[in-house]
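for the writeup, i need someone to sanity check this before i put it in the appendix. the sequnce is what the collaborator sent (i think, or maybe the updated version? ugh). structure was predicted straight from it, no edits. if anything looks off just tell me and ill rerun, i have time this weekend
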Amino acid sequence: MLCPTWYVVNMPISRASVLLVSAGVVLASLTPMVATAAAEPDPVSITAGTGVKPALDDWPTASDELTFLAVLPYDRSALRRFARQVSTPGNARFRAFSQLSAAGREFGASRGDVRALRSAANAEGVRVDVADTRLTAWLSASTATWERLYGMSVLTTPAQPEGVSAFMLAPPGQRGLFNAEVPAALAAYVPAMIPVFSSTEAGITRAGSPPVNRGEPFGPGAGCLDDTLLPLTYSPNQIHVPYGTKDLHADGLRGQGSKLAIIGIGQSYSPGLAEIAGECFGYRMPPLDFVGVPGIGEEPVPAPGVAGVESNLDVQSSSGVIPQAEAISFVEGWGSMSFIRDLIDAYTVTLTEVNPDVITLSYGSCDRILRGTGDWPFRRYMDDVFAMAGIVGTSVLVAAGDSGTSGCLHQGLPIPGLRASYPSGSPWVTAVGGSRLVLGADNERVKEVVWNSSTWDPGNDGAGAGGPTSYPAPWYQRSVSSADRRMTPDIVAHAAESPGWPVAVTPEQFAGFMGVPLKPGQTWGMVSVGGTSAASPYIAANIALLAAQSGRLGFINPWLYSLAANSYNRAYFDITEGGNLVAPEASCCKAVRGYDGASGLGSPKFGAWRDLLGSSRSWQTSTY
């Protein structure tokens, strides 16, 4: 059985800032207090170890059915124009959101185009399943059919979660790339295809019985932490105070009616741990509604070892914000050769099956790796799915990463210069960076600075990501930035690993994370974690809290930047101290008064956001 490779960046053990990287080039934004470093393979050679032609028995047979992703012909200009109109305060169509089926009919492929594709595909033995967005379709056929259409043989390579293989068609002599061409028989009907398919091998290890706390009740949470970690960890209740979440709870906003979705790429949460965290810290844990993309199955498939901490952090950092939600939806996607295909699948399934108010994602990849795998040109289609999310009123937040302004460092590439990650760099999402809170009496904010662990631990390159992207400056940033590039982050929240976020983990995760095993008989442990993977789901949950009262907010960036023009001091905590530079070659960025490339607009005042949502002035178009 082909297994995925997870590894951590090799750093000093004492304060290792560890990011998880998969062979499928997906970065999980996660930073522990202490972890064991390991040797790193070459992340660009994503088929390393599988580049040799497999034995005949390992090849898929002609009866196997493979499903590839096709982009449908649609009017990108009309789609993005409408997405901009419904997102921009002052526009007559502002917040006039559509149902997904209606938006798909209006902006997606026409019926005639779909009929023509079905006719041509069926003639070749290919079945067509059109997504509700009508931006993409899944094309299914036998292996023999695809090999005939492409004129090349299918290759296999490891993917995520554990026990999964990705099947792909690669150009001759370029096994590290998937074929970006459209077969001639379909070229007149689809502008692009991503011929990468993932499937579960027989005998995959799925989640077993959830870990159970067999001891006495733990109380408010301090008893759930080891004495050595307790001073290095904030409780969720503490973090709720400075951002205004506690005040929203006191006013009765506790998540009733909210719909939050969390996307995991190639992994899921460990069942039972979120409930333990809720018991520890005194809140009701909402039920978790698991959704797998086609082929994943009906049960979550947690990643092995330290990698599994990522999804547990996503779930636990958000759940205490919306304790009265009917459920939090977790969508597990594949982690395959094509990161963009995995994203399109996961977001399309989320919009169709969950229809959430907010989606949060804690994964990304630097542009150098996307270029190396052949994914780079396909970003435009993912951006269109993001724009479609805005049209239907779904807010999309993405963790900006944990490598400061050098987004490739935590993926094993020796590239210290300015490198923002995707998809946080997309102009159609809200990029969430990292800060470090300093709390005093009654958990009031003493100050908040840019998260940058290198300032207290030399050699540690954990820091909130930010800086310029590969996109031109979007319309909503022009009032605050003179850069000709899209800049990240947009907003920030606490992401430091000291004091960090508490996360309940399995014994295997604890041993890999802390470098020491749990005591005999313990079925779970608590670790202190940092990273923008905590900040993004935390802010996303608060937006879901607001949406339950005020209605969906949709793509929030234009509104966030209009607040900067009209109500800055009321809406944001201005972060003016610190920077996220971890490599001198990057030459960016420092916190200054107002907007900057290290802390974005600053950190949110959720109580003020709630009030401003009902203020007509806050929706006015700003001077840009």
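The first strand starts at residue 6 and ends at 8. DSSP finds 16 helices and 27 strands in the chain.
thx in advance!!
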